[in-house]
Write a structure and sequence with these properties.
about 250 residues; mainly alpha; globular
Length: about 250
């Protein structure tokens, strides 16, 4: 357990950082464009009644509709399922891209409608409290999933496609377990902190502090794992045997 928490998980996330940082940048930019387009004319996408309900009721009410413990379980299982799909279907690449597109479309539409009706403060204030950690976890899952898919496209020198794919996939299972814990934390924040009747800046500060702690954890322990070349793969004795072959 200690090796998993202090070496394997943060090390593998840091090794894949180029992938999930790229996913993060692309998704944020495309979502921002989508929001800007929708904000120009929200009624082109939703009816006036739907806009009125979203802006003045349903968006904020979403966070307090269920009992906090039930809501936490709901969002945790949903987000963990999304992360698991990204990791499990990464070898096919396209399903991960479709999930990211769905994320861009949904948040872009809702955010654009809120911004276009002067409720940008409410939208970003509520979403970012838990969303900093939650979306980071989803982006990590997508990046690691795409990294698995790339392993069979470009396995690298001295490795067969099957071997490269197996190594990436085994290490990615460590990420899957770790992200389940991260998404549990973000689910608890969304259920218990986001709806609290306290000023939004205070809740944002709390969410940002948790997110920064996670980033520091990955950078610190992950950096140590990378420097010592500690693998997130299973122990060598549990890996397939390698037999020399003639060319």
């Amino acid at each position: 357990v200690a090796r998993f928490l202090l070496v394997s998980f943060p090390g593998e996330v840091l090794r894949a950082s180029g992938w999930w940082l790229g996913v993060t940048l692309a998704t944020v930019v495309l979502r921002g464009i989508r929001m800007a387009v929708v904000a120009e004319d929200p009624q082109a996408y939703l009816s006036p009644a739907e806009i009125d309900d979203l802006v003045n009721n349903s968006f904020e009410a979403y966070y307090s509709t269920f009992q906090p413990q039930n809501f936490a379980l709901l969002v945790w299982t949903n987000n963990t399922f999304i992360a698991a799909i990204c990791l499990a279907s990464g070898v096919l690449i396209l399903p991960v891209l479709l999930i990211l597109f769905s994320n861009i479309e949904n948040l872009g539409l809702i955010g654009g409608v809120m911004i276009g009706n002067g409720r940008a403060d409410v939208f970003f204030g509520l979403v970012l409290i838990h969303g900093l950690l939650e979306l980071t976890a989803v982006f990590i899952a997508a990046g690691v999933g795409l990294r698995i898919g790339w392993a069979w496209i470009a396995p690298g020198a001295g490795r067969t496609r099957a071997r490269a794919l197996a190594e990436r996939a085994r290490s990615a299972m460590v990420v899957a377990l770790g992200l389940a814990l991260v998404l549990l934390v973000s689910g608890l924040i969304e259920a218990f902190v986001t709806p609290l009747p306290v000023p939004i800046p205070a809740k944002l500060a709390f969410g940002a502090l948790i997110w920064l702690a996670f980033v520091g954890y990955i950078a610190g322990f992950g950096g140590s794992a990378v420097l010592t070349r500690a693998s997130a793969d299973v122990d060598p004795l549990d890996r397939p045997a390698e037999a020399p072959t003639s060319s």
